[in-house]
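Async update (no meeting this week)

Hi team, since we skipped the sync, here's where things stand on the single-chain job. The sequence we agreed to prioritize is pasted below, unchanged from the tracker. I ran it this morning and attached the output directly underneath so nobody has to dig for it. Comments welcome in thread, and please keep replies under the output.
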Amino acid sequence: MSAVLQLIRQRFSPSPAGDIDQKTSSMIRAIPGSSHLVLDSPHSGTDYPADFSPSCDMDVLRRAEDTHVDRLYAFAPALGIAWVEALFPRSYLDVNRSLHEIDPHLLAAPWPIPTSMDAGMLSKVKLGKGLIWRCTDDGTPIYSRKLTEREVFGRIDRCWTPYHAAVAEAIECAHARHGYSIHVNCHSMPSVADRFATDFPGLEHSDFVVGNRDETTSSAALGQAICAHLRSLGFSVSYNHPYKGAELVRRYSDPASHRHSVQLEINRRLYMNELTLEISSSFGIFQEALLSLIELLLRTDTRSMP
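Output:
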């Protein structure tokens, strides 16, 4: 157990075990698989906890979601693919962030855990997109109050800890069964980056962004094979720009041991209306194209790749 999680246990007393199980099941959905492939969707949750209490308009806040990503991959469990999904929204707690990516401006008192000094992680915190979001992509403040230490620890205990445990277990089981594993971290992105979304405001996104942290969380061959397949279907694809992958691919990958993790960003304009959040008429056709990529990965044994 990490020092951060140990401190959480010391400073925050969780509910009785039965209650924890109930809360965990209401916060995440985890479906075991039988293949070497694991998919997770950390940002598609739409169940807003009662203790969130945001001050901004809900229509603005909802645009932070990777809305419908869970529906795009609804075919996965039937193919024997392990699936992990956050049911809570990313603006409540972002499980794709490290526990050290805390924004001190959000807190009512000094944070008791050392914060990250990594430049890449700090860039997200400065944008207001740390473990707990300070603002939306357009800069709208989410809170009109400061958060307490207990609130943040509670969110970590109810959301971050069980989600990461589920992803880790799914990858471990897949690897133990097959001797290798491929983990796809599933996301969506707006068609154009807003002011506080990334370090590249105003950037018009490609149809897909494939990220493997500059070929450190998966082999180069796997990352490039995914790009090539999507391009063969007629999509525009960017590789490791502007999204390289974050905590979930970094934390659970080890390509040298045949544990490969890739972050896949999908342009929302391909399947939904970005303003109303309604799925578009192209949803089914696009889902078939996405299925062809997943079927390719199901046929891929990374041990035979360069």
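Quick observations from my side:
The chain has one domain: 3-304.
Confidence is low (pLDDT under 50) at residues 11-24.
Reply here if anything looks off.
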